[in-house]
Amino acid sequence: MENFTSVADVSNLDQLVQQAISFKENPYQPDLARGKKVGLIFLNPSLRTRLSTQVAAQNLGAEAIVLDIGKDGWALEFENGAVMNGNKAEHIKEAAGVMGRYFDVLGVRTFPGLVDRAVDYSEQLLSAFMAYAGLPIVSLESGTRHPLQSLADLMTIQEHWTEKRKPKVVLTWAPHVKALPQAVPNSFSEWMIAAQMDFSVTNPKGYDLAAEFRGGAPVIHDQEEALADADFVYVKSWSSYEDYGKVPSQDEGWSFSQRHLSLTNNAKVMHCLPVRRGLVIKDEVLDSANAIHLDQAENRVFAAQAVLNQLLK
Ligand code: CP
Asked: Is the pLDDT of residue 274 over 90?
């Protein structure tokens, strides 16, 4: 694996998940990457990604150094050939090039602007780091994907599933007060398809995800029909891809409740966090034994550890 920006970077998915599970059983292996340096660059807030990746690096004997580049770094210019006479103090060519000389692996976290779909889906920032840093890049969530989250999600499903048949996994949209990126649902869809799950998506009309991420998985606009007999339900809010970044409806009938859970096969309920209680998922579900969101968050450490271990070898 040269970089970790999507499931397409993973040559053996099952092996990576098994590696993450084995790190959970025996996390502290400081000889694996002793003395290596991991840079973690954040343009956006984070609790889980930031902490879990630092713990993962420490477990491998590596040192993680965090820069809130959106707050503490210079404003970055991305345009090739720009005459930098505005408020951008440093070009990405130098910023990424310098960081490439300090670290062995670089993690980059950015959110989409949700204004211009072509810009967000071009992954300008991630691509620039890959072009100019000259070292392996880990996506800590980008404009279109959140692969470390998806690896932890797949690992969590495998841990909770003991039957021989493939589980039925349903991704369901939920309302939110803000327009949120499509990165988590895009990425989760890609990983479920790569893992050959029985996977479908349910959302109100106007919220269909880009077809390139859904890979032929059915989109069902009737939530009750979609949830029938589900073994895992992944609840997530996202803004419109079609009417880009807009929130065409906020139907609180889609807030995941005990009524929805009763339609499923006593499903495990997942969320990447942070979750707005009462709006996205009702307390009655989040506080029940069906909720496995804290397992997902815990598994972020071991997902990151499996990825860093491969990239630091
Ligand atoms: N799920 C996730 O990426 O959480 P943070 O935004 O807190 O990192």
From this structure: yes
